[in-house]
Each structure stands twice: as C-alpha cells, then as structure tokens.
Amino acid sequence: MFISFPRFSAVCSLSLQFADQVFNVCTLTQKSNLKRLNSCRRKSTKMAAMAYKLAINSNLNTNGLLSPPPNKLQSHLLPSNKKICGRRILASPPLSLIRSKKSWHGSLRLSNLSQSSASNSFDVVIVGAGIIGLTIARHLLLASDLSVALVDAAVPCSGATGAGQGYIWKAHKSPGTEKWELMMRSHQLWESLAKSIQLQGMDPVEVLGWKKTGSLLVSKTTDESSILKRRVEELSQEGLRAEFLSSNDLLSEEPELVLDKEGGAAFFPDDYQLDAHRTVAFIEKGNRHFAVEGRYAEFYHEPAIGLVRHGNSCEVGAIQTSKNTLHSKKAVVIAAGCWTGSLMHDLIKQPDIELNLPIKPRKGHLLVIENFKSFKLNHGIMEAGYTKHQSATLKATASDSGPVYNAQDLSVSMTATMDASGNLVLGSSRQLVGFNTEVDESVINHIWKRVGEFIPALRHESLEDLRQSREVRVGLRPYIPDGKPVIGLVPGFSNVFLAAGHEGEGLSLALGTAEMIADMVLGNPSIVDAAPFALLGRCFH
Hints:
By secondary structure, the chain is α+β, with helices and mostly antiparallel strands. The chain folds into three domains: about 1-100, no CATH class; about 105-210 and about 275-360 and about 480-540, FAD/NAD(P)-binding domain; about 360-480, D-Amino Acid Oxidase, Chain A, domain 2. It contains 13 helices and 20 strands. Strands 3, 4, 10, 11, 12, 13, 19 and 20 form an eight-stranded mixed sheet that branches. Strands 7-8-6-15-16-17-14-18 form an eight-stranded mixed sheet, sandwiched between helices. Helix 5 runs parallel beside helix 10, helix 5 runs parallel beside helix 13 (about 505-520) and helix 6 packs across helix 13. The longest helix has 20 residues, at about 180-200. The protein starts with a strand and ends in a 19-residue tail after the last helix. Required for the assembly of the mitochondrial membrane respiratory chain NADH dehydrogenase (Complex I). Involved in mid-late stages of complex I assembly. Pfam families: DAO.
C-alpha cells in the first residue's frame, strides 16, 4: 500500500492552508502503514486526521496503488509496468502550487536561513539548469528529503532545451539497443506526468504543450521505404502500435505531405510532443515549491568555476561559483550539456585523474513560423534520413561575413510539426562549428527549401514575407561520438555524478535520466540498467 511517507510526520504538523503543498509517495506494508497512521492520528492536528482518512478509505487501483484522491492532500502515483515493490513512484506537485502568475527573478535563496555560510549548504548541488538538471532536481525533491541547489551560468531554456522541437518519440529507436530501455522508461514517466496533471483537473496541453500527435518517419525512395517497413515490423513485435503508410495512404492522414509512389511513412500513433518552454516553467515552479521548506535554491547567472575537495579525499565538499561557495553534504551532479566536457576539465584540475570526455557542441537551427494559418499538420514529421542527409549545396564566399561550409560541415533534414500554440516548427540542421550560436540565414533558407521538397505548399509561401512572424531557435546539442549519454559516477570521486551527452534527445530522455541519477545518489537499485552509460571505459582510463 502506498501513502505519503516518510514525510507523513511533516503532514501532521502543517496547517490546512499548506495541505496541498504536501506531496510525496513511498511504500510501506499495510500493517506498518496502519500502525504509523494510528500513532499520528492520536498526536496530530486536523491535517493528520485528513491524511488518515485518505489512507484508509482510498481504493486501490488495478496496479495495487492508491488512486489519486479528489481532495487537497494529493498523492498522485505513476503506473509502471515493472515490479517496483519498495520503490517510490513520482508524479507532480499539486497544480494549485504551480499555476501562480508570480514571476521569479534572479537567484532564489533559502528563505529561513540568514545569508551566511549555512545558507549555502545543501545536500546536493546540481550544475546545469537545462531539462536534465531541472528534472534531476525535481526527482530528488520528490523522492527524498534532501535539499538541492541548482546552478547555471545563465537561465533555463538558454541552451539546447529551449531550442528543441519537443518530440517524445519511440519511432526512431530500435529495440535491443542500449538506449531502448532508458527511452521506454523515460517515455513512461512523461506519459504518467501528463496523466497526473490531468487528474488534478488541468489540461496537459496548456501546462506542458503535451500533444499526442503521433509521428511519421517519411521515406522518399524504395530503399528507405523497405527500411521503414522493417522498422514497423520490429516495433510491432515489441507491442507498439505501428503501420506503414503508402504515399496514397498519406493523402488522408497528412494531406500536405506529398510523396512520389516510391515513398511512404512509418506511422506511430502513440508518439507525443511537448513544448520545452512550458514544460520547463512547470518543472521550475514545482521545484520552487520546496524553497518554502528550505530545501531548494537557484543560483542563476553564476558560472561554476571550481570543485572544492575535502583535503586529499575523493569527496567533493563544495562547488565554487563566481559569487558563492555552495557546500554539498551528499553529492554534486554536473548536467551542463555541451559545456560539460570543458567544465569538467576546468573543475577537476587534478593530475591524478585522466579525463577524456568527448562531448562537443553540435549547432542546430529551428525555424518557427508563429500563428501559421496557411495549412495545418496533424502529426510530427521527420524524414527517414534525418541523421544522414548531407548538404553539399550550401557555400559561402571568402567575402561573406558568415562561415565557409563544405559538404561535411552541415547536415539538414526535414522535420515539421505544429506546436500547441499553432506555430509551424521546421528543421533541422546539425553543424560541428564550436560554440557559435549566431543565426545563419543561409542555413534557414536551406531548411526552408528542404521542407518544401516534402510539403510543396510551402513553395507558395515567401520566407521573406514571413520574417515578421518568424522566430529562429539556435541551440548547441551535446554531441558525443558513440551516441549514448554519459550518466553515472565520475571515476576518482565518491560523490560527483555526470548526466550529459543526450544530443537531440534531452527532452525525450530527461525523466529516465533524472530517475537514474537520483537512484545513484540515494543508493537505490536502478530500474534501468545504468552500465551502458557509465563513464569508466568511455571517458576515463
């Protein structure tokens, strides 16, 4: 039976006005549950009685979990297709805490401590406030009583997270690969989070930009179509809904997508997409709820500049930022995206540790046409050769202010979708050009032309005429050569963890990654095998 322990004693002491601020789930046997509930009932206030009534009277659902109660003490639970006896299952804080219009600016400090060295002491310090760092903070806050500090040189959504297209897809993953289980677990957690929001009476589309659009992987040639047919068969055998649609079939499913008879698409109706900015805002506000308990603080616009060791030990005791020394009592997590490699080199500075963290920035452009009315797309769309299509046509002369390209510098493949706000989102490019984040108009033009090869209606639109209603997103994906993120303990340290290298899959894999890191920090067994993502043998020798 599942009920809100071990923080139940905190529930007993809180007043009713904070009832909906109490959120956590853990597992206990029914016998011990009743014993502790009866003890609290004898000692506690009206709040404890309310919690007692919830625990005793709530019906168990088909998974043996308590169904979410329609009252202030929200105990929203996430279903799982794995055996999770004794494990904590997380959803989201009550949305009454999250939907405040209040703006937050600058760094958030612990509210009940003076500005002294004590106020800068936390159980866990996380460097990096992209979707990976934010969700790790969220999971630790919900799964434990630990305090968390979140550090970033800028603010959330200023890196790869804010420039993402928001696809939460299974379509382009292969069963049996090392990322498959992590992807499946992460998607399960995303779906459960959206469901928990819905159970709280809110619309996941409004809160997360969450849409079940389904996905179309599109082929233009006979060979590509054959590959997609095999993928459909492979994923169908894994229990996923999938079918291959001919070019004629696509006319009814996605009328604006026009292909020759050799073409077609693999259709996966259960894929989703979300809006990164809405999702980050939701998670960030949920994390900030824990600031009132003295368990959460943000240190934005504070680059991390050093690790502070406990003497000659392998334990890191603090992160030095440009403004503060943030003491860590339990763990340090580095989740700084494409900056993780250079940051670790700068932070470690230890001759006894040989570091080779091959994470590089891979620049990407997305073109967003706001409030697009000319036509609508029903699904998320991506061409089958997304990672292979190379541009050999884009060149720049020596007199141009922009960079010079050759065939290996730029990869452009068609992606297209409509987001929750009715914007047309088109992509996508990939370039290994360092940390440059300037908009390149020649790349935008190339994206426009490439998408027009699949969606001919765009050929009747002038990109120049749409300049006033367009937004260009440029982000740096954390690219790693073997295609697997690095998630785990840093060799040579007892309490420093890395979570980076997700490239274009940060949003998709975020919740699974967060759960994995939190389990490592808390000493819990991992639901997904973490061995394929370990640093030893890949980044340290």
